[in-house]
Amino acid sequence: xxxxxxxxxxxxxxxxxxxxxxxxxxxxxxxxxxxxxxxxxxxxxxxxxxxxxxxxxxxxxxxxxxxxxxxxxxxxxxxxxxxxxxxxxxxxxxxxxxxxxxxxxxxxxxxxxxxxxxxxxxxxxxxxxxxxxxxxxxxxxxxxxxxxxxxxxxxxxxxxxxxxxxxxxxxxxxxxxxxxxxxxxxxxxxxxxxxxxxxxxxxxxxxxxxxxxxxxxxxxxxxxxxxxxxxxxxxxxxxxxxxxxxxxxxxxxxxxxxxxxxxxxxxxxxxxxxxxxxxxxxxxxxxxxxxxxxxxxxxxxxxxxxxxxxxxxxxxxxxxxxxxxxxxxxxxxxxxxxxxxxxxxxxxxxxxxxxxxxxxxxxxxxxxxxxxxxxxxxxxxxxxxxxxxxxxxxxxxxxxxxxxxx
Length: 406
Known about the structure:
Blueprint: H1 5-17, H2 21-42, H3 48-75, H4 82-88, H5 90-105, H6 108-115, E1 121-127, H7 129-132, H8 138-147, E2 159-163, H9 166-175, E3 179-181, H10 198-216, E4 220-224, E5 228-230, E6 244-250, E7 262-270, H11 274-285, H12 295-302, H13 306-310, E8 315-317, E9 323-325, E10 338-340, H14 347-365, H15 369-372, H16 384-395
Helix pairs in contact: 2-3, 10-11
Protein name: Nucleotide-diphospho-sugar transferase domain-containing protein
Keywords: Membrane, Transmembrane, Transmembrane helix
Organism: Lactuca sativa
């Protein structure tokens, strides 16, 4: 039976007076079922134009009825069931679909999985806006060292850049495949964080906590600061039995020497297991005991703690012959894998001296192969970094002999 106009008005008024969400759903089903029935059984025209008009009329009636009903329910303080709201709010769903998809695609698990090697190993670095700035781009130098060095270009497929702010993330997406946005509420990591300032300390400890989460997800990682230049594949020079191995500002000549080796947190290879996860938790919690120290100086303190023995952590220090830096350069360019702009203060100073380092490497690689092993070719001494470091040490009363500068 087709309802007469007067009957339809009475039924609509009844819907607006009721207060039960279940009853509302029932009557909405009746309302739209009636309209569908009218569409399929009353309008028999075979012309396409007529059907388009009817479809348009149906859609307009649907939207108008929904808005009218929604307003009436709001005025009566009646809440529709969630399943009904989500099924009828088609416009907002369509607008949010792309953003939801982008969030899912950029999840940490997705990025790590896409970048990982067969043994679930990834290479990680962090980046903020200051270090991504095209005018003084540490990032450009970092990526260039991969692309023009022996055996390292392919490793870019396994590099994940962890962006600490949205501008750094946008830059990463333009120049690299694997990017992840790591936000920290209430902290702005976009600007250059000067050594030992509160923002610098927050950034360093945020990094330690993030790396712990990567281990808990079951991924091994090689963490590298973006001011580390890559010249050869480092993986053949890692210890196969170590849980945690780290580069040094000073290397004593013994990879197990806890007393003398001075670690640098800017380059480390860590295997995911219970021991390494517990170690990272302990390292991060130790910031409370040493509130005014950064991560690598705290590491230099806790490396003596008995908990490392209790959890049976296998710790190794990496030889500066292969993993050097401005603090202690690798003297043999036929063996060097990486060089770090450590013992240097200031972004512009790092960029200036890293450019010189890359020039030295290119000059070395331009030599005939037979001459590379015979020559005493080595790095030029850092210019701006040495001056900046001396100024910093003269002005700083807080720097002690046991502390290092990255």
